[in-house]
Amino acid sequence: MEIEGESMLKITFAAVITFLCLMPGAVLAHHAPGVTGTSQAGPILTTSATTMHKGGLAFTLQSSYVNIEDFSDNELLGFAEQGNDVHTFDYLYSVSAAAAYGITDDLTLSLRIPYNSFNNIREAHSDEPDEIHQHGDSRGIGDMTLLAHYRFLNMPPRQFESAVIFGLKVPTGKTDDKDIHGDRFETEHQPGSGSWDPVIGVAVTKRFERISLDADLRYTLVTEGSQDTDLGDLMNYNLAVSYHVPGKLFLDLVLEANGEWKQKQEISGSRDENSGAHVLYVSPGMRIRLNKAVSAFISVGIPAIQDMNGIQSETNYRTLFGVSVGL
Fold first, then answer.
1. CB of 182 within 8 A of CB of 159?
2. CB contact at 8 A, 319 and 286
């Protein structure tokens, strides 16, 4: 049944892509996820303070790949001999579908649903220091995020905007995926968390003709979810400079700094010292408009700072690719 479910998901995503690419031309919505206007530059991962026009509708389909500097079996056994329970995996792959709608010119609502996959999870335990536990892959639908984006300040003469962001991550994701031995994965390796997590943030945008400066700060208050696990609060901060290249290509060049701070997780009230981190990516990217309605974007994140708590695998790089359509 898992294979059938994955096949159905792939078919659904393929149908969405086909639908987006075949849609007739329309005016692009300004700065919905992954969508930019025809003459203004915009970021890729950073949230712009610009909202969609009233009645505007946008769809985004994107994939992300995070390559991990995984531990070798010998390293895992060495950690176990030192009394540490350490896990590792090869990479995290995610595909997500998102939609946004302009309720008013200053209020945009959006939702996002991901499909997450952890590849080749394995670990060693301090009470079994001579054995590597192979768990295989974990995959499935992740948690849905609902967000409201309200622009409370709009100063056209100064080309300056500011908005507040608030919403909720809803536990729609799979939390009972099992490994190759039939044992349930720990919550941190499940596609979904099982927790209801409020989100609040702020975004600012300043424009200089073809250049846009954008920044945002978001905080996710993570609550206890599946298997008595609290994965830890999450803070994201982003800064982007975007340049709209003149010409017929409708090309945006983007450079971003994407930061993430994550609190240590707790399982049944016990804190995991080998969890939580502060990571800062430097992310060059670009967006190109394919027709009047559809644009494609790509971003590559290189870690500039990786401050990991305890013993954890670090990230080698992160890639993001997507296609968006706006009405």
1. no
2. no
pTM: 0.86
**What are the φ and ψ backbone dihedral angles of 57, each rounded to 5 degrees?**
-135, 135
Number of domains within the chain: 1
Q: Can you read off the two tokens belonging to residue 16? A: 């969405």
Q: Residue 157: CB partners within 8 Å, gap ≥ 6? A: none
Smallest CA-to-CA distance from 145 within 107, 187, 182, 192 is with 192
CATH of the domain at 125: 2.40.160.40
Q: pLDDT tens-digit profile of 112-129?
A: 999 999 999 999 888 887
Q: What is the arithmetic mean of pLDDT over 172-191?
A: 96
Nearest to 166 by CA among 120, 109, 245: 109
Centre a 10 Å sphere on the Cβ of residue 297 and count the other Cβ atoms it contains: 25
Residue range of the domain that includes 92: 2-326
Per the CB < 8 A criterion, the answer to whether 260 and 236 are in contact is yes
Q: Give which of 165, 170, 273, 258 is closest to 219, Cα–Cα.
A: 165
